[in-house]
Design goal:
By secondary structure, this protein is an alpha+beta fold. It has a single domain, classed as BMC (bacterial microcompartment) domain (Alpha-Beta Plaits). Helix content is about 35%, strand content about 30%. Strands 2-3-1-4 form a 4-stranded antiparallel sheet, with helices on one face. Helix 1 runs antiparallel to helix 2. It is globular, with a radius of gyration of 12 Å. The termini are close together.
Length: about 100
């Protein structure tokens, strides 16, 4: 069972087409801001999503940097930040 993110932490996601873009995005995210990489998901047809958590400002800065990095080497599909996800949302993600 997935552990819950600490109360008040934001959840950020960067989805790319291809693993290289996701790895570049993740590297940029964790180097740019004080966020924790909590996992990744293979969606379908080459789509992969990197997931980070931290305070809202850090997650926003991280996902912006991750999106820019993914654009340079791959194909960015989407970026999203959930400022305070509901407790049940963490059950969807591979947060250990």
């Amino acid at each position: 069972m997935a552990a819950k993110a600490p109360s008040g932490e934001a959840l950020g996601m960067v989805e790319t087409r291809g693993l290289v873009g996701m790895i570049e995005a993740t590297d940029a995210m964790v180097k740019t801001a004080n966020v924790t990489f909590v996992g990744w998901q293979k969606v379908d047809a080459g789509l992969v999503t990197a997931i980070v958590r931290g305070d809202v400002a850090s997650v926003k800065a991280a996902t912006d940097a991750g999106a820019a990095a993914a654009r340079k080497v791959g194909e960015l599909v989407g970026v999203h930040v959930i400022p305070r996800p509901a407790d049940d949302v963490s059950a969807i993600f591979p947060i250990e």
